[in-house]
Every structure is written in structure tokens, then in C-alpha cells.
Amino acid sequence: MEGVRRNAVFALLVQITTGVFTTAVTLYLVRALGTSGFGLFALALSIGRLAIIAADAGVPLSVARFLAETGGDRLSAAGLLRDSLRLKLISGAVVAVALFAAAGPIAEAYNQSALVWPLRGVALSLFSESLFGLYFAALIALGRNSLNLRLTFIESLVEAGTIIALVAAGAGVTGAAFGRAIGYTVGALVATVAVYRLFGRALLSTRTAGRTREIAAYAAPLIVASGAYMFYSQIDVMIVGAILGAHAVGIFAAPMQLAIPLAYIGQALANSVAPRQAVSDKGPNVPAFVTGLRWLIIVQTALIAPIVVWPDEISRILLGTQFAQSADVLRVLAPYIFLRGLGPLISTTVNYLGRAQQRIPIVLGALVVLVAIDVVLLPRIGVVAAAIGASAAYSLYVPAHFVICWRELGFDLRPLALTGLRALVAAAAMGGVLLAFGTGTISIGTLIVGSVVGTVAFAVVLVLTREVSRSELRRGGAAVSTHVSRLLAPGLR
Question: Helices 286-309 and 414-436: crossing angle, nearest 10°?
Fold first, then answer.
């Protein structure tokens, strides 16, 4: 369990690092580019994220599963990574070139000539981003989240600094896209060197039997499942752009971008706990999964109150007055934000359990729900419809994956259900406190004090209902302190 906790701390630090840089860049871009400019950038990113489905070809998730099963065998792991690199380099290069060439026709289809060069910038970043993603997934599976932390910091620092510098110099949306490309290129180069240093010549050795076919075979259902998921996670932006235009994309994409860091704790736990559920001699670590999910339910429930009570204040302070309409979008996204925090641990666990095929009908069903709601409601009620679609689709996606985990791991549902009820009571108490501090145009000082008091109320209710004990709080604080101290100590392994 100690290894799980240590990896979880490093995985969380990875997500915090990403979150800090992502949030800083988003807050800068929404003000520097405005609603229409940020909308064009978000649209280019969404198209690029769909293209990366083909560039990845399911390989990172596939090889991660097999790496988790090696039990630390360095030679076997090196052979798997070598085989996956061969597949990845080909698919990444082909897709990047295709997107660069198709930028003109895509921009013409959206009737947005200014979209051409941002798309080409995204195309250039696609190859490096895809390669970086392979290394990242491999290191997660091998339990090397401490190395991922260093790589993520370097990539994020270069990307954020370059984007801000280019946009500030007047390069606009195109500068933001090319800044992203520079960041991922540097990140991929540094990651390549780090992985070679980790494996040495074993990465080039041919003494292990090739497993390219095995990797490709499991990648097939994964590319359908993860590809359909990526498609449905980005299709909102593309449909909004097609029906309502770039301005509406900006109004919708800004709160969606703010929601991304709110799921980083869930992603951190997924990166630490999910690989422990892979089939091996030790069997799946069910207690780690249940404990991680319990804490995610508590943390994500705490986010509900401020999102529902103070969306106008959040939008005004973080995004600016030109994004005032984003407040309604943010409030409707509350179920999506809650479930998005649970999703990474649950869906990634399904992958490591070898049940990727069972994900396909779930993701396709969620996609149908999302597209149907968008197409029917966007022309009638505007951009809020996209938020309704996102929340509705996730309300199908996450519970259906949870059922697969429950069937495979066989844990008791009652404790988790009780945790959910107690957390909702705590969230209601927190919401009451926030309402007491007021809504509308209130000062930043009042927001800070209200948030602190509301969080205390949330924690008190959890203790009073015996969902969280004082000893748990002490142990958690001690564990975080210990691992952070190790992180800051010289000679980090």
C-alpha cells in the first residue's frame, strides 16, 4: 500500500503541475484573445485532439497494460516499449502530415479562414504530443510517476512560456497553436533521452521476442473505445462551432477548460491505482481502488456547492465580463464536473482489467446522447445545450464503466453509497454557507472568506457523520508531508 500512496502523491504532483500551467495559460488566453479568438483556438485544439486518436492508434493504452504485467522485468519492458515505438512513429507521422494538408479544407468547411494556420500549428504539435503521450503512459504503468513529474514540468514550462510570449508579441491564435507545438517538441525530445537513460541499450536489444502483434491486437478495441470517448469529449465544441459560431465556442470552451484541472486528482489516482488492477501473480489491488474512489467521491462532491451557488462570481473573476454567459454553462456543468473526477480511475481500471471491448457500446451510447441533445437543443436554447449534453452523456458513461469494475473486482457497494450520501449532506451545508455570504457582485475578499468557511463546514459535517475520522486526517496529512519532503530532498529516485 505504501507504494500505491507514494505513486499517488507523485501522480498528484504531476497533475498539479499540469493544472497550474494549463490554468495560467487559459486565464491569459481568454483575456488576450477574447471570446472569438479563444473560440478559434479551442476549435483548432478539438480538431487536433480528434486527429490524435488516429495518431495514437490505441498503442499507449495497450502497451501500458502489458507493461503493468511485466512485474518489473526490465528487459521485457524495454522490448514492449521498443515495439510500441515502432508502431507509434509511423501512425503519428502520417496523421500529422494529413492534418497539416487538410487545414485549408477544414477551415473552409467552418467558413473560418483564420483557422488555417492555428490548425497547422496543432498539426505540428500532434506528432510530438503523441510521442510524449506514449512515454507518459509507459512510465505510469511502470510506476515511475516521479520521472513523469520532471518531464511534465519541463514540457509545461516551455509550452506555457512560449504560448504567452508569442501571443504577447502579436501572433494571436496562430502563436498560441505554434507555442503548443514548440512545448511538446521539447517535451518529446527530453522524454526520449530520459527513457533511453532508464533502459539503456535494452531499449535497442532484439533478444526479447517481438510483441508488436499482441500490442496491436489489444490496441484495436482501445482505439475504438478511447477514440469514441475522445470524439464525444470534443464533439461539443465542433458542433457549437458549426451551429453557433466561434463566439459561442469561446463561451462554452472557457468553463470547460477551467473544469479540466478539477479532475486532476482523479487522474492522479488513476495513474497510481489503475495499473495495480492489471492481471498478475498478486491479483488486483481491490482495496486501493475502493479507497481511491471513496476519496474521489468526497473531493468531487465538495466542488458542487461553489459551482452551483457562485458561477457568476467565478466567471467574472477568472474569465472577465465578456464571458458573462459562461456562468450559466458552468452551473449546468456541475454533474459533468463531479463525474469527470471519478471517470479516469474507473475507465482506466477497465483498460487494465483487459475489458476494453466492453467499453465500446458505453462510449458509443454516450456519444449518441451527446450529439442528439446538441443537435436538437443548440438552435433552440443556445450554448447551454452543449453543457446539458456533456452532463447527460457523462451520467451514462461513468456509471456504466463503474458496473464493469464492480463485476470484475467484486467489492461491496454499500460503503461507497453511504459515502456519497454523507458527502451530499456536507455539500448542502457548504452551499448554505456560501449563500449566506451572498451572490451577485461580491468582493474577492468575501469570496475567499466564504470559501474557507464553507470548506470548514463541509469537513465538519464529514467528521460528524463519521465519514472521515480525525485519525484519517492526521494520517493523510503525515503521508503527504512525508512524500513531499522526499520530493524536495536531493537525490530523488
Answer: 20
**Model pLDDT for residues 396-420, shown as the tens digit of each residue:** 999 999 999 999 888 899 999 999 9
Helix, coil or strand: residue 302: helix
Mean pLDDT value of segment 27-50 = 89
Cell of 20: 497550474
**What's the sign of the alpha-carbon dihedral 7, 9, 11, 17?**
negative
79 and 137 in a common domain: yes
Whether residue 119 contacts residue 98, with contact meaning beta carbons closer than 8 Å, is answered with no
The whole-number average pLDDT for the span 169-197 is 92
Instruction: Name the domain boundary from 378, 411, 444.
Output: 411
Q: What is the distance, to the nearest Å, from the Cα of residue 133 to the centroid of all Cα atoms in its chain?
A: 12
Q: pLDDT-derived band of residue 461, with 50, 70 and 90 as boundaries?
A: very high
Q: Judge if 86 and 150 occupy the same domain.
A: yes
Q: What is the pTM of this model?
A: 0.73
The residue range of the domain holding 459 is 414-493
Number of domains in the chain: 2
On whether both 141 and 169 belong to a single domain, the answer is yes
Residue 480: is its pLDDT beyond 60? no
Q: Mean pLDDT across the stretch 66-76?
A: 71
C-beta neighbour count of 226 within 10 angstroms: 22
Inter-CA distances, 410 with 86, 247, 286, 349, 418, Å? 38, 48, 8, 13, 17
Considering the domain architecture, whether residues 192 and 330 belong to the same structural domain is answered as yes
Cα distance from N-terminal residue to C-terminal residue, the chain: 19
Residues 302 and 432 in one domain: no
User: Is 246 in the same domain as 378?
Assistant: yes
